[in-house]
Amino acid sequence: MKQLDIRKMEVDEFFKCNNIWDMKKQQKLADQFYNELITGNRVTFVYVKNNEFIGEGSLVFDMNDSDYTIKGKRIYLSRLIVKEAFRNQGIGSQIINFLIDYARDLGYQEMSIGVDIDNLVARNLYRKEGFIKVLFQGKDAYGAYQKLLKEI
What we know:
The protein is an alpha+beta fold. It is about 25% helix and about 35% strand. It is globular, with a radius of gyration of 15 Å.
């Protein structure tokens, strides 16, 4: 497989992610992510093909939840998503591995992620990539989910 063009997204490019997911439909999340980018609490990397955003994944430094983040030790992998037409091509795995290397270079030893229980495709991907320790399982306004952990 050809090496992906993964690069750090600049804040002023944030709204190009609408190409990957419907930011208007998920306005509250989009606002949260944008604010985290501006404050430096989030760093987002994008996979670009022909100047088009195809996939994205972010790292969040502080979630105010020790299951997700512990300063200097545990970082949160957020919003891993690949444009629907490009799924099942290994892009998600390559983005995860890129983010793991980036977090490790920053000195982190653990990475967490949250996943909906009914999202079997994502759960299988995360298991394959080593997110096997379940820190928490419960429900919120969006439904049943798990918090998973991987040592990096």
